[in-house]
Every structure is written in C-alpha cells, then in structure tokens.
Design a protein that fits this description.
By secondary structure, the chain is an alpha+beta fold. The chain contains 12 helices and 11 strands. Strands 5, 6, 7, 8, 9, 10 and 11 form a 7-stranded mixed β-sheet that branches. Strands 2-1-4-3 form a 4-stranded antiparallel β-sheet, with helices on one face. Its main location: membrane.
C-alpha cells in the first residue's frame, strides 16, 4: 500500500505508466491486483501491465502456491483522504504454507530439544542424586550392620562435608564400642580369674573336711575365713568400680576445701602408715574445688593405700597441694621401689597388679581413682623411675574461695 500511496503523491494523480513500475513487485508474489480511483473507476490492473516480470500465474507455479484467495479491498490514503482502492487476490498458502512448515519445523526442533534436555537433566539428576545419597546409603548400611552385631563395618568418609563428618563420628563411635566390648570381655575374664582362686581354695578345703581328709581345726577355719574375706573385699572393690563408672551421674558436687579433705583423709590412714613405719609429710595450700567430698576422699585414700604396697619400712610419702593456672594440683610422691616402664602404662587398668607390689590386691583401686577423677572433669598422671619411687599428679578444676570457678589456661590443661 505504501508503494501505491507514494506513487500518487509523486504524480498527484493515478498514472498507469508510473504504476507499471510497481507491477513486478506484485507479480512476483503471484497476486492479482487492480486499482480503482476514488470514484470507483478502474485505473490500473496487473493483467494490463506491460512488464518483463512474467505473469502472476507463472510465479504461483514457481512457488507451488495454491489458488487465488477471495478479493480483498484495501483503501489507499494520502494526506488523510482516500484516493483509491486496491483490490488484491493473494494466492492461498503462498506465504502461510511456508510459515506453517517453518513453524512446524521449529516446533519439532523445540519438542526434540525439550525431550533431549529433559533426558539429560534426568540422567544428571539421577547421577547427582546417587552420588549425593551414596554416603548416606553406606552410612545406613553400616548402621544396620552395627545393629546386627557386625562391628567390623565402617562408613565411607570421602565427602568432606557434613555427611563426611557424620560418617567420621559414626566410625569413632564404632571404635569406642569395639573398645568397650573388648574391655567388657577383659573385665569379665578378670573377674572370673579373681573369683576362681578363693573359690577353688574354699572348695578344696571344704571337700577335704567333708571327706575326712582334714579336720575342722582352727587353722582350717581361719583359712576359710581369710578366703571369705578375700571374696568380700573383691566384691566391695567391684562395687566401688561400678560406682565409679556411674559417678558422673551420682556425684553430689558442691564447693569444698580440697585442703581439708586431703588432710582429713591422710589423718584417717595415719595408723596404717605408722604400723608400716612409713612417714607421711604434707605441704598443702588452701585450694577449693567443686566436687563430691566423699568421692574426693576416696581418690586420695586409694592412692595412699596403693603406696603401702610399694614403700618399704623407713620410707616416706609426701603430699603437696597447690593451685596452678586454675587447676588444683595434688601431688603424691613416695620413696618406694618405683614402677617399671612396662607397668607404668597399665597402672590405671582394671585388675592390673604390678609385680613389685608387696601385697596382694584386686588391682581395682587406681582404676577407681581414674574414673572418679575423670567424672570430676580432671586428669591423673603417673611418673616413675624404677628404684626411685613414683609420683602421682591429680588435677581438678579449682574454685576461688568465694565458690566461683576459675578459668584454667588452655595451654596448661593436662592430658591423660
């Protein structure tokens, strides 16, 4: 329409000769067109045009276009007034068929692309999901194996994220369970061993009396009584150990003077040390702790009793108590035979008895001490040179004298 309007403006009227220049443009679309002036008189037609562009029918065949559509009247407007009407018949499908084929091709490509993208996304999602859930699946499997009693399974700790940390924590827990199971088995075996000897003696003595091999003399009765006492002491030690294991849940803690507790405990054992001709020396500063006084007294008493097995007559035991960097540090040093390098790592193990001990014991006393110290948030260490005595250092968090907690220096925190 713009071409026809421009031609009219140029000539200020409809000029068939000038309009023939527009004819090739119309003919190449395969369209038929004729122009009427404002009065409705036909002034130009494509069929009458003299041009080398061929005919509209030829171009329709070249484009494989369909038949002509119905005529459409399009007004030609110049300077706001109608100056004529263009009646045009456009081939059906000449443009729309191409558009449809193009659109159809585009749609097929879009559908195919969407399907491929969805398939790729699905495969990537499945791979990512399996990779993300693999550690969880392995952890679940390891937990199931643990529940079934298989403690040799471990979870993979490959991912360095929260799942990997969880797997590490799980493996640590399994290691602790394995260790606890080993300790339980060893504990059961040790208890059986400790009970076997006195029970065997009691049985043999009683059977000998029953068979008439031995008479129930005072000596036999005394032997039976001694073995009964030995069993009683063993049961008491086992009860103490069980109590120490549960001490963290049963401690009756409150601010106490550790100085008074240590001094009172040493005084209560003074008679036994006098009988053994062992001197007890003290150097105690005033130190307060938040602790169970009964359990703390047991910690001190067990250590002092243990020295009686190693310190010969004429020896000495020294107790010192000081506050060092927020810790109440109790040091018990003796002049005994010392602890061998082989025995030293095991002195806090249950039922462990050094070969240098002068008297029989259950081997539970120091194990109870270690448990009680740990329950109070402290540590205990031992140092010794064979032939030069031993030193036990117990550290507990100290309090100010007004009962408030001190802050222990991190670099001074002792390790077991």
């Amino acid at each position: 329409m713009a071409l026809f309007a421009a031609d009219y403006r140029r000539n200020d009227a409809w000029n068939p000769v000038s309009l023939n220049r527009i004819a090739p443009t119309v003919i190449m679309t395969g369209s038929e067109a004729e122009l009427h002036d404002a009065s409705g008189r036909r002034v130009w037609s494509v069929a009458d045009a003299n041009t080398d562009a061929g005919t509209p029918e030829m171009h329709r065949k070249m484009m494989a276009a369909g038949s002509l559509g119905p005529p459409r009247s399009l007004p030609v407007v110049v300077a706001g007034r109608p100056v004529g009407t263009l009646v045009v018949r456009v081939p059906q499908g000449s443009v729309s068929t191409v558009d449809k084929e193009f659109h159809s091709s585009v749609n097929r490509l879009l559908v195919a692309g969407a399907l491929i993208a969805a398939l790729v996304a699905l495969l990537v999602g499945v791979y990512t999901a399996r990779r993300a859930t693999k550690p969880i699946t392995e952890l679940t499997s390891a937990a199931g194996a643990l529940a079934a009693g298989h403690r040799d399974r471990r979870a993979s700790t490959v991912p360095n994220n929260e799942i990997g940390q969880l797997a590490k924590a799980f493996n640590t827990m399994v290691e602790h369970l394995v260790k606890e199971d080993q300790l339980r088995r060893a504990f059961t075996a040790d208890v059986a061993h400790e009970l076997r000897t006195p029970l065997a003696i009691l049985r043999s003595e009683l059977e000998a009396v029953q068979d008439g091999i031995r008479q129930p003399t005072d000596g036999v009765i005394r032997s039976l009584h001694n073995e009964t006492l030995r069993l009683t002491h063993l049961v008491a030690d086992l009860e103490a150990l069980a109590s120490a294991d549960a001490a963290a849940f049963t401690l009756e803690r409150h601010p106490i003077s550790l100085t008074s507790t240590v001094a009172d405990t040493a005084d209560s054992l003074a008679g036994r040390f006098d009988e053994a001709a062992i001197a007890v020396r003290t150097d105690l500063d005033m130190v307060w702790v938040d602790a169970d006084p009964v359990r703390v007294a047991q910690i001190v008493a067990n250590q002092l009793t243990n020295t009686l097995k190693f310190v010969p007559a004429g020896g000495a035991v020294t107790l010192t108590l000081h506050e060092i960097d927020g810790w109440a540090e109790l040091t018990i040093t003796d002049t005994g035979s010392g602890i061998s390098a082989d025995d030293l790592p095991h002195i806090f193990d249950r039922f462990y008895r050094s070969r240098t001990a002068r008297a029989d014991g259950s081997g539970i006393g120091l194990a109870v001490v270690a448990q009680l110290v740990k329950a109070h948030g402290g540590t205990i260490t031992a140092h010794s040179t064979p032939g030069h005595g031993a030193t036990f250092i117990t550290r507990l968090p100290a309090l100010r004298q007004n009962g408030t907690a001190r802050t222990a220096r991190a670099d001074q925190r002792p390790t077991v």
